[in-house]
Design goal:
Blueprint lengths: L1 H12 L5 H7 L10 H24 L1 H20 L4 H29 L2 H33 L2 H21 L14 H13 L1 H31 L4 H29 L1 H25 L6 H27 L6 H25 L6 H22 L14
Helix pairs in contact: 1-5, 1-6, 1-7, 3-4, 3-5, 3-13, 4-5, 4-7, 5-13, 6-10, 6-12, 8-13, 9-10, 9-12, 9-13, 9-14, 10-11, 10-12, 11-12, 11-14, 13-14
Length: 395
């Protein structure tokens, strides 16, 4: 499950060292448009999840994941042979559409087996592997780029996709028996969507996740420009520092797997958000004093702490979204994840388009968007005596 989920990170972060080269090779006029290599894949991911989740409730989890991998591989082939930026973008959207299958169905598969804090614990361990991939992906992308060119990066996706899909076929049993499968009906999807909308917890935490994930997608889209333009680092240094920051998210996800059983999802999420916003505010003031580019050591130190807080958020937010939706796990995972992504993508595109050679837009995004997430959480939890009083216990 961890390696399947990690394909989203691999298909995102292995591309980062090649974005400038791809833009130049395909004659992109505005360097900020290179960010679409990242953001449009997430757009395909968001739209695709609305299909795969309900479909997995009808045909089973494994078949939906197989089909997703096939669409992903077709998108990789299209990008590999692309001669224009438009063709490249179509391929990236298809890659997102394909990865939506593994991404959302894995969550439903886990929800078939676990709930509440137990699910949060499993999701934390998966998130740890998911985040460790970005620690290696830019370096792998850079190696392939230097030795074989940017097209070979998509070739590596194809090989790895086939290997992981075969591994999944052999190792993972089906978790949705025939007697529990539901036919795909538009009215059922609509009813489920209304149920998510009417659930204060499910819809509220979906909104909060979208705001918070928006800041992270902004970082992914602009990281190459921040490190190589704002701080004038070369490709090797960029891959190294990107990996170091990603490790902090992975470590936090592992730590969360233990902490969530003791303190609960809500309390950890609340204090992680408070700390992250405070750190980003300090960095924003510091950056303003230094005309948008504070000393590099200040930037990476504070961002390492912010990313540690981020690692405490991912698994908990998803578990909080899914907690009331166990009876519609596939459709519920599709709706909550797709909605979260559709909120985060335009926010990330907007903030990323403001890149001006400094870190000010990025850091402002890490203040404003998590602050919206925090306000949403406070609204959801208004009236509770304790933030963790209703956390479910693992089955």
């Amino acid at each position: 499950m961890a390696f399947i989920t990690s394909f989203v990170a691999l298909a995102t972060d292995a591309m980062l060292p090649a974005m400038t080269v791809i833009g130049e090779d395909l004659k992109v006029s505005d360097p900020n448009h290179n960010q679409y290599i990242i953001s449009l894949m997430f757009l395909g991911l968001a739209v695709g999840q609305l299909f795969y989740g309900p479909w997995s409730d009808a045909v089973g989890r494994k078949l939906a994941i197989y089909v997703g991998f096939v669409v992903f591989l077709i998108g990789c082939l299209l990008s590999y042979f692309s001669e224009s930026f438009t063709t490249m973008m179509i391929g990236r959207v298809l890659q997102g559409l394909g990865l939506a299958g593994p991404r959302v169905v894995v969550m439903a598969l886990i929800r078939d087996l676990y709930a509440g804090r137990g699910m949060a614990r499993i999701m934390s361990f998966i998130s740890a592997v998911f985040i460790m991939v970005p620690a290696l992906a830019p370096a792998l992308g850079l190696i392939v780029l230097n030795f074989s060119g940017w097209r070979a990066i998509f070739g590596s996706f194809i090989v790895l996709g086939i290997v992981v899909c075969l591994w999944f076929a052999v190792r993972q049993p089906e978790t949705l028996p025939l007697e529990k499968r539901l036919p795909v009906k538009p009215e059922k999807l609509w009813q489920s969507f209304l149920e998510v909308l009417s659930s204060r917890q499910a819809f509220g935490y979906t909104l909060a996740s979208g705001f918070i994930f928006g800041s992270f997608v902004t970082y992914l889209s602009t990281a190459q420009q921040v490190f190589e333009v704002a701080y004038q680092l070369d490709g090797k240094a960029f891959a190294l520092w990107f990996a170091i920051l990603a490790i902090f998210i992975g470590v936090a996800s592992l730590v969360n797997g233990a902490l969530v059983m003791k303190y609960g999802m809500r309390k950890l999420t609340f204090w992680a958000l408070i700390t992250s916003i405070a750190l980003a505010t300090v960095l924003l003031v510091w950056a303003y004093v230094y005309d948008g580019t504070p000393p590099f050591v200040v930037f990476v130190t504070i961002f390492a702490a912010i990313f540690f807080c981020t690692g405490l958020l991912f698994g908990n937010l998803m578990a909080l979204c899914m907690e009331p939706l166990g009876h519609i796990a596939g459709i519920g995972a599709a709706i909550t994840s797709a909605t979260s992504n559709l909120i985060s993508i335009p926010l990330a595109v907007f903030v990323g388009s403001l890149f001006n050679g400094t870190i000010l837009p990025l850091v402002a995004g890490f203040v404003a968007l998590p602050a919206l997430g925090l306000m949403t959480m406070i609204f959801i939890e208004h009236g509770r005596e304790q933030l963790n009083e209703t956390d479910a216990h693992p089955r």
